[in-house]
Design brief:
12 helices, 284 residues, globular
């Protein structure tokens, strides 16, 4: 009978796992099997994983993703309602006065540089793509402020084109899990793509990011509350006491609001408050 990694947790929710002993180097085949099992476990833990940026169309997702650099998705989601009310289309945003655009996106930080990117990409969409967001990565990366990470977010979530999004959380976790040693995002993307079926790429990205934001934190991972601890070669780097680890959980896992003001219907947590509303302290 197969036993999932989550079965290592007791009925009280305690995780019983020890850091694996490295008797011999893990083979490529063993690593791939472990990686795919991690993905299956994450699919059970986060069946509701989704993009954590609010958007209604490809243009809104593109803009929101550009704004998400160096800030939280929560802050972007709190900022974009007023932005999209003022500039609902690429043509509208392309004609915006820079100072007006800067003021609207100021809460996201680096607002002058982001304003230049938004004006540039909106003008490019208007002039080169008929006011429509293109559905090919080769076209998306020609837009000002748009790299492979942003392009993969848009393709995977607005067009259904599989892609792996290597953000800070994704890169940190796949290295922590010893699935790659690469630091360069494009090299990380290539190595992880080779491990998983193409059909899993987009959802894998969401699941890993969800896990990184909720449980497997950068500075103090909640190892003692992690359902995939038995599969993790880095188990023990964080808090292993189950009760102490439980206090480190974020967002819906910690009983706190999520990042989206308009989360999907199956999201089990609370919606985030609008800009200026009270919100529990959460990690980016």
């Amino acid at each position: 009978m197969k036993t999932s990694a989550r079965a290592a947790a007791t009925s009280e929710g305690k995780v019983s796992a020890k850091k694996p002993k490295s008797a011999k180097p893990e083979s490529r085949l063993a690593m791939v099997r472990r990686a795919r099992r991690i993905n299956r476990e994450l699919a059970e833990i986060y069946p509701y994983a989704h993009p954590e940026l609010d958007f209604r169309n490809p243009f809104e997702l593109l803009v929101a993703t550009v704004l998400s650099a160096q800030t939280t998705d929560l802050r972007v989601n709190q900022t974009t309602p007023a932005l999209f009310a003022a500039y609902p289309t690429p043509e509208d945003m392309a004609a915006a006065a820079p100072e007006d655009l800067e003021e609207l996106i100021r809460p996201t930080g680096f607002f002058r540089a982001k304003s230049r990117s938004l004006l540039g990409l909106s003008q490019a969409l208007r002039d080169n793509f008929g006011g429509e967001v293109p559905g090919r990565i080769e076209d998306l990366v020609t837009l000002p402020g748009v790299g492979r990470k942003t392009a993969n977010v848009v393709l995977g979530n607005a067009f259904g084109v599989p892609g792996i999004t290597v953000d800070t959380h994704f890169g940190r976790l796949v290295r922590r899990w010893k699935l790659t040693e690469q630091e360069d995002p494009e090299k990380v993307e290539a190595e992880i793509c080779a491990i998983f079926p193409k059909s899993e790429w987009t959802m894998l990205s969401h699941r890993v990011v969800f896990h990184g934001r909720r449980i497997c934190h950068s500075r103090k991972p909640a190892c003692g509350a992690c359902p995939i601890a038995p599969l993790c070669p880095a188990y023990g780097e964080g808090e292993t006491d189950p009760e102490k680890a439980k206090k480190l959980l974020k967002y819906e896992k910690g009983g706190q609001p999520g990042q989206r003001l308009t989360p999907p219907p199956d999201y089990p947590g609370l919606p985030a408050p609008p800009l200026g509303g009270a919100v529990a302290d959460t990690a980016p």
